[in-house]
Amino acid sequence: MVDNAKLAAIAGKFCLEGKVTDVCPLGEGFINDTFVVYTDNSQEPSYILQRKNHLIFTDVPAMMENIFKVTEHIKKKVSDPLRDTLTPVRTAEGKLYHNDADGNFWTVCLFIGGTRSYSVADTEELARQGGLGLGEFHRLVSDFTEPLTVVLKGFHDMRFRFSQWDAAVKADKAGRVASLKEEIGWIESRRQLMMEFCEKIEKGIFPVRVTHNDTKISNFLFNASDGSLLCAIDLDTLMSSTILNDVGDALRSYTNTGAEDDTDLDKVGMSFGMFKAYIGGYLSKMKDTLTGAELDALAFSGIYITYEQVLRFLMDYIDGDTYYKIAYPEHNLVRTRAQFKLLCSMEAQLDRMNAYVKSLTCPTLP
């Protein structure tokens, strides 16, 4: 852990208003280490300081340039540019990051006060708010045309995932393949369908747009005063792809009636009520922007991304648990089975989901 004096010195490398008086940890830091910075200008936090995980994000300068480009675009379209999106702060040398003597990359952005966040969407109203949040973000960047650097290669690329999968099954590093015939069958029986969808993405049937790529509700801020949606945060994974990846991952997250690693599969399934709430919120912002092809695939996107997660959990189990952190030896297999149960529930409700999307976008005339 970095001591407080060193953290204050690192924060001081950036163009801050006021003198740093304190730096305190914020959150659990699963990927990045995050701190709030206090200055003598205010008793409230003034800035967010982060040590970016450069083992995951191997090009932090490019990542920060992505964030700067997109947030500058958003600032031109909102009423309060310092609250309605993140504001990266530069160093005295004009950089969006500080690279310390140990090779760590540090960044700073303005702290947005008077806000609250949620760790989980446990009501239909919160699911609707989450849909509003992603829809508003996609709406604000719908006319963004500058190139963005790929910060996570192969992310949501099913062709790439299958190449990894085939190699993992062939290598059988942990000697587990023989005991996983049923689970491997789940993957293989859907391979053709998933590749057909992947090929649509590759052929440009769905427009390339700015995507957030981590759409859980904790990555959206709300006004503390009235609970209204404020803005999207945690923009490290900004890239250009199909917005179906964002919507699909959100549906995987919001609609699951159980935990991602639930051992009681009777608890796991897709809540249609949560689906309606999320999609209703999202389409209230985006239905006039999306193409017909995107609207037709909106419901299936949840199946596509959930399938990808089943594949990735099972692949990691076959590899000997080298990617995801595990709490016990069978953890990745438990995750695989829980996500597969969610996948089956989504598949069973696909017609119903598609019908609901159509009811919002092509209402029957009286």
Q: Would you write up a description of this structure?
A:
The mean pLDDT is 94. Helix content is 44%, strand content 12%. With 366 residues, it is an alpha+beta fold. Helix 4 (158-171) packs parallel to helix 9 and helix 9 (292-319) runs antiparallel to helix 11 (350-361). The strands form three sheets. Strands 1, 2, 3, 4, 5 and 6 form a six-stranded antiparallel β-sheet that branches. The chain has a three-stranded antiparallel β-sheet with strand order 7-9-10, covered by helices on one side. Strands 8-11 form a two-stranded antiparallel ribbon. The chain has eleven helices and eleven strands. A hairpin with a 5-residue loop joins strand 9 and strand 10 (229-232). The chain has helices at residues 4-11, 60-75, 124-140, 158-171, 181-189, 191-202, 243-254, 272-286, 292-319, 331-348, 350-361, and strands at residues 20-25, 33-39, 47-52, 88-89, 98-99, 105-110, 115-116, 209-211, 220-223, 229-232, 239-241.
What integer is the average pLDDT?
A: 94
Gap between N and C termini, in Å?
64 Å
What is Rg? 21 Å
Instruction: Please give the share of residues in helix.
Output: 40-55%
Structural class: alpha+beta
Biggest β-sheet: count, sense, barrel?
Answer: 6 strands, antiparallel
Could you tell me the strand content as a percent range? 5-15%
Helix count, per DSSP? 11
